[in-house]
Task: structure prediction
Amino acid sequence: MARTKKRSTAKSRSSLDDHNHDESEEQGLASDEAGRLKIKKNYEELLGIRVEKLKGRVLNREKINKSIDGVYYICFSCKRISHNLDEGLVEEPLTQINYCAVCAKEKGIKAAAVDSK
Result:
């Protein structure tokens, strides 16, 4: 029996992407912020109940451009999935636990100076 080629679903996927792009424009978000929001929601769905176990840890690092690094992490205090460009990132110097800027301010944790090598 001869195999038949499967049809590509690229057309349907592109229409979904267009729909998501329209929603982000309606919300007034920049495309990069909308993309980060989408990735955060995907992390929430994928991690589910394991957020409690992984709180305070870095999930992923990305290169925005040559000089800017992006970091997805789970805030130790509020247990939200955050990005350093959106919510800020503060690492407690002694325990090396990550907090968002709001939680760090509430706890009185100041950002440690980072040595660039």
